[in-house]
Each structure stands twice: as structure tokens, then as C-alpha cells.
Amino acid sequence: MQHLAMTCKTLYDKDYLDNMMILKEKERHPVIIFKDIFTYFSSVKRFQIKVKNFVSDILNNNEVWRELKENINNIIDHHLFIKKLRELLIKELLSLTKQTEKKWCEETSTIFIHSVKGAIKGLVLCFENNLESITNEYVKNITLSTIFHMIGTHEEYPGLFDKISYFRCEECKKLKNEVIYSDKLLCMKCFT
Fold this sequence. Notes:
By secondary structure, the chain is mainly α. Helices cover 65% and strands 9% of the residues. It has one domain. A 3-stranded mixed sheet has the order 1-2-3. Strands 4-5 form a two-stranded antiparallel sheet. Strand 2 and strand 3 (175-176) form a beta hairpin.
């Protein structure tokens, strides 16, 4: 009886692991195809400008700033600043992905929001004894810095947008996300 129980458990574990492998194989991340590197940078810049303008405008709204300031020690998703920022991020990410990656856009905006809330909490800790010194300019700068460093296109480690952006190599005609522009767009393999 004990051997039968062990055999059943082993078969269950194997079935579970097989199913996990099938799920893993079907898992995919968004792929956004850009015709050239200039279109990519233009899209990233457009995203940054829209986010920057929105954050500046909303933090200059007295009602939004007052609510944020009054709850600076406990910022939650229902506060106007966070709620509206999340809505804008989803909208702009959908625009970047040409409306094709709704789930990814929602999950990514949630990650942005959690990161922004954590950054603001860090700001609060820095001004722990002098919370009235926190200005909307400080919150704006830390919000934008957090989001823009996550999407970064200039670091040794690829940012969020670098990981999902693909280009067609003009030599081998394959889609690649690591390319170099040298008279024409080339993947790393064709470049070397």
C-alpha cells in the first residue's frame, strides 16, 4: 500500500511538472516590431513626454496635491494621483504596443505604480522629521525618475522597452531585439 501511495505521488508530481513545462513553453512576452531605430526612439520619447506632461499637470492640481500630501505616509491605489497615473500608463503603453498587449500593459503599469509608491515612501523617510518640506516638484522628479529608469534605453542592462522591441535585420531578415545601426540595421550576428 505504501509503494502504491509513493507511485501515485510520483506520477502526480511528474504530471504537475509536465504541465508546468507546457505552460512555460507557451509563455511569451510582448514583441513590438519597429521599422527602424529612429521610430523606436521617437516612440520612447513620445511616451516620456506624455508621462512627464501628465505628472506635471496632475501634481499642479491643488485637489490632487492636497490629497497626496495629506496621505503621504500611506499612499494607496485609490488616491487620485496614483489612480490617474496608472490609467495614463496603461493608455500610453497600449499606444506603444499598438493596442496588442493589454495584459502586459496592465501588469507593467502595476509594476510602475508599485515602484513609484516605493520611491515616494523613500522620499518620506528622507524627510521623516520635516514632511512639510516635500513639494510637488520632489514627487514629480522621483516619479519620473523611477519610471524612466525602468524603461531605460541607455544602460548596460536593457530596460523594459529594450526587451520587447524588435527590428528586422537588413542582412539576414530575421527579427532581433539587439541591433546596431551602421549604414543599415544589423543584428549582432550579421554585424560581426
